[in-house]
Predict the structure.
Amino acid sequence: MSATPSVPRSEGFTPTGTIASHGDRRRVVFATVVGTTVEWYDFFLYASAAGLVFGALFFEPAGKEFGQILSFLTVGISFLFRPLGAFLAGHLGDRYGRRLVLMLTLILMGVATTLVGLLPTYAAIGIAAPILLVFLRILQGISAGGEWGGAVLMAVEHAPKNKRSLFGASPQLGVPLGLLLASGMLGLMALIAPGDAFLEWGWRVPFLLSFVLIIIGYYVRRKVEESPVFLELAERKEKSRMPIVQLFRKHALLVIIAAFVFAGNNAAGYMTTGGYIQRYSTDPEGPVGLATADVLGAVTISAVSWLVFTWLAGWIGDKIGRRNTYIIGWVLQLVGVIALFPLVNTGSIVLLALGLVILTAGLGFTYGPQAALYAELFPASIRFSGVSISYAIGAILGGAFAPTIATALVQATGTTTSVTWYLVGMTLLGLIATLLLRDRSGIPLGPDHEEEQAKSPIYGVSHA
């Protein structure tokens, strides 16, 4: 085992002990933004298509209403496989490195998405069509479950201590950028191939574009160096042999609380990223009945505002702490979820866009600091497993079935008020979970400080 270095390398230092250059850090930020944008473009493209076309094309025999519920269920099913992706990626990431996992998840997501674009419909091959669609969505879920942890740790563990929240916001930007790209491409195709042409072939083009994006993302990611924290662990031979076992034996309660933090954000976010607003507001037999291209344009605008608020929250998180930034975010999100459906139900595309923009203020502030918050919660040797599994469980509890729940609530009650109360409840759940956690902004991340990192960040619990 090598001697302990005199300077913690993980605080902005390279494996050779020299300070990482601004160029190195810029490459890391750029690579995480590009890679996560491609990942979430693929993931959200499917969710948007589930709201717009999959019900009619793959679940036609089930009828319009039940077919749409089945379509949204395929969005949620993928979340059930996120923990599998998180477990696999957590083990590989803590044992073999963050960089390897990022390459594997990117390829898996891109292949699955491209194949969706080539998939025959129910009219062509019958029941095999929805079965294959669900299988490809499961592959997307496994990839998404493994992607996030690696991306955020590459960003945060390369960051200087006083800029972790800002650096950690870079992979978070991939979510609004992915939504922006997915909605923009679908909106463009809705204009180029309107009506029946969109159902026949227009929706496929954005899926096939994924093949090109995956090549770009792979090229960018392979240029990035491994995380300095992992390299230090590998050099010292201090990698955990069974990181997932260690995680749940010592930090199970922390994983659940961290998952609730994300669940509060994810449920509200999946009103658009899960395709619900798109479907609800474009249904010709529904109360709103807006044009598909117009709604996709409004979602695209909201993705831009989400991007801005996420970056702003990352910056503010380094100034006032992750916890305080989150508390501001929950208040903003509460306002957003209360205002959303009253504005959407006016039938005005301008007010719909306004409602989505208001919502994104809270979404950005409860998402921008998440990478730094999560990274600072867990010890170095099991950090990949901790952040990945917390994120995956939070996604199941929050966004997995949010569109399905919203659809069922409206069908049962005849009003979107029930959906509003559901989103209010999830927002308050996230707020409570946040209040249970201490702010650990700036805690050392390297293996020199595992004892300090192992102290419980939960109020009222002194040690894991």
